[in-house]
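Appendix B, example 12.
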Amino acid sequence: MPTGVHLRDARQQLFDAAERILLRDGPNALTSRAVTDEAGCAKGVLHRHFADFDAFLTDLVLDRAAQLDTQASALREAAGTGAVSDNLVGALTALFGPVPVAIIPLITFRDELRTRLREAMPGGGIAILAQATKAISGYLADERERGRIAADADIDSLTLSLVGGGHLLFADRDPGPPSTAAVSRFVTAVIADAVRRPA
């Protein structure tokens, strides 16, 4: 292994390796040895950049959660354009892509990781699901301000239904993620009473 690898490059290399293991083998297969083997580097590289494996996993989750901000921004920018249901279908498909869905059970299985994430993200919520909740809630509120969602719509309940149900739809990826039609049926049913039809 060459020496002098830049910190940022090494971190990204390790994160990408962990992501591949998660997608291929699931959270139980994710160990420090598996990550460094997958990355093709010495085990010491991981411990040179992170205090321990849970610190590595915490940074991995925070890094991938931050990437969801791009999808959240795109969703908020879509407010007022297209159909509300289509915007939500696209958002759920992006927010519950393969990597976010693989990370959620990792958080669930590791007590120390959840503890560290709570310290890093005050305010509660499970990383990934918290980002999805914020994105959907913000979008629905924007659409309510534009009159495309009913003024008396319960944004919190709609958000909970969309995020919780969306996660269940996407969590079972055998034989694969749900079809766009299935996601569309789900979204349409959840928001049916809240969406204002154009005159």
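Residues 1-7 have pLDDT under 50 and may be disordered. The chain has ten helices and no strands.
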